[in-house]
Design goal:
Layout (H helix, E strand, L loop, with lengths): L5 E10 L2 E11 L4 E5 L6 H8 L7 E6 L2 E2 H9 L2 E4 L11 H11 L8 H7 L15 H9 L1 H4 L4 E5 L7 H16 L3 E5 L10 E4 L12
Parallel strand pairs: 3-8, 3-9, 6-7, 7-8
Antiparallel strand pairs: 1-2, 1-4, 4-5
Length: 215
């Protein structure tokens, strides 16, 4: 049976006595790019945290290839790459050292060399510059270079276009399209208008808690 890579069943999340979303069902197949939408406070980042297993504060089920995460968490995490709203870069290290560290904690699996990944994000020549000398956009590029290195099938990206110029946005969209075409999937949040075809939209306003609808 061809299970979805990720499946959400009747997902419900409450924070500060307020229901962010409920009755949320979603199937994400290989080849899908899903943009999570909704106003500030609707639970976009919270949903991504649930999908990265950094929070288990929810009701319902999250399944990886048909198996609940409680039984498949390790296998799932081996196939997951998360790039958060903050770049997650150690500024005392160089881009090369940051990515060496990333590859080390991911068991050394990588699709290309670190030098090639940095070249792809426009950081050729900055490999050994301490990251505290880099701009916000360059730090974001170091974080995004992980996408070129990882063999993970599931990409979860929180505002990946932050501090990226127009050409960088085009390049990142092309990379996501290539990843999906290869059988991977992408879930992301962004305030940017995406020019890509075939992007699925998940609007959390469609799953608002009943109590919220009174306001």
């Amino acid at each position: 049976m061809n299970h979805p890579l990720l499946e959400l069943q009747a997902l419900r999340c409450e924070r500060d006595e307020r229901v962010l979303f409920e009755n949320l069902d979603l199937q994400v197949m290989g080849g899908d790019i899903v943009q999570v939408e909704g106003p500030n406070g609707s639970g976009k980042t919270t949903l991504l945290r649930l999908l990265t297993t950094t929070s288990a504060d929810y009701e319902g089920q999250i399944l990886w290839r048909g198996v609940p995460l409680k039984q498949s968490r390790l296998e799932y995490l081996n196939q997951l790459l998360f790039v958060g709203h903050l770049p997650g870069i150690k500024k005392a290290l160089t881009p090369r050292e940051n990515l060496n560290w990333f590859c080390g904690i991911n068991q050394g699996h990588q699709r290309c060399s670190i030098e090639s990944a940095l070249d792809e994000v426009g950081l050729f020549g900055f490999e050994d510059v301490p990251c505290h000398h880099l701009s916000a956009g360059q730090l974001r590029r170091v974080a995004l270079a992980r996408l070129f290195l990882t063999p993970a099938r599931v990409w979860i990206l929180d505002e990946p276009f932050t501090a990226i110029d127009k050409q960088g946005v085009k390049n990142l969209e092309a990379l996501m399209a290539e990843h999906a075409a290869g059988g991977g999937c992408v879930l992301l949040t962004t305030h940017q208008d995406m020019a890509m075809d075939g992007v699925r939209r998940l609007n959390l306003e469609d799953f608002k808690g009943v109590a919220d609808e009174q306001f």
